[in-house]
Design brief:
This protein has 6 helices and 7 strands; from the N terminus they run H-E-H-E-E-H-E-H-E-E-E-H-H. The protein has a 5-stranded mixed β-sheet with strand order 3-4-7-6-5, sandwiched between helices. Strands 1-2 form a two-stranded parallel ribbon. Helix 1 packs antiparallel against helix 3 and helix 3 crosses helix 4. It is globular and about 40 Å long.
């Protein structure tokens, strides 16, 4: 992990130097020397990007109490062409509806991901068509492909011998877990027909059984820790 960050930083410095005239100013950094900062992507198109924020405080508390990490308690929120992308390692995309990336956002996301960033997209039921279309604009030469059942993400910290857990029924059937790779590095993770993030939310929001919420939180920890090792 330590060896990758200078490469990511160097590549992104070049990217932002080239596109700096278009970049939006970065917000002030939050106080605290955190081991991990969770970032939610604010996208255009009318979709409810803010769904991604709902369960993050619970997930961060679960991460803090079950690992040695000191995560920032609440998420950052950025747009893809914010200069704040420079210091970001992890992005969540979540929602029910339409997603639209501008041309500059497509360029920023592509360069950021190729330089070492990690994007986790979790379909909240309804964003599948839009996300597939927009991520194809980011990587027209690549395809979303099924995550192998023996992928290390499934045993990164908690064991998931049956693969990605099912949190909500929606269309019925099993969850689908897909990815986009740069060589052997997973840089985009996409979960469909499960709604992992809803399991992070307070019990009153969806009234999921505690056992189901625990699986969602454990899977979230695996995703985070996996993203930190790439």
């Amino acid at each position: 992990m330590k060896g990758r960050f200078p490469t990511l930083l160097g590549c992104l410095l070049v990217l932002f130097a080239e596109l700096g005239a278009q970049a939006k100013p970065a917000p002030e950094a939050a106080a605290g020397d955190w081991d991990f900062r969770f970032t939610v992507l604010k996208y255009k198109g009318g979709g409810d990007w803010y769904e991604g924020k709902v369960g993050v405080p619970n997930l961060m508390e679960f991460l803090r109490t079950n690992t040695r990490l000191r995560p920032q308690p609440t998420p950052d929120v950025i747009e893809a062409d914010d200069a704040a992308l420079l210091r970001c390692r992890f992005l969540l995309v979540k929602g029910h509806g339409e997603i639209r990336f501008t041309e500059s956002e497509v360029r920023y996301l592509r360069e950021w991901l190729l330089a070492g960033g990690f994007l986790y997209a979790d379909d909240d039921y309804g964003m599948d068509v839009a996300f597939r279309r927009e991520i194809k604009r980011v990587f027209p030469e690549k395809e979303l492909a099924p995550l192998p059942s023996n992928h290390p993400l499934y045993r990164q910290y908690f064991e998931f011998p049956q693969g990605t857990p099912k949190i909500h029924e929606h269309d019925g059937g099993p969850p689908r877990t897909l990815g986009i790779w740069n060589g052997d590095r997973l840089m985009v993770l996409y979960t469909v027909n499960t709604d992992i993030g809803d399991g992070w939310a307070p019990w009153q929001v969806h009234k999921d059984p505690e056992a189901v919420r625990l699986l969602a939180l454990q899977f979230g920890v695996n995703v985070i820790l996996y993203s930190m090792t790439r």
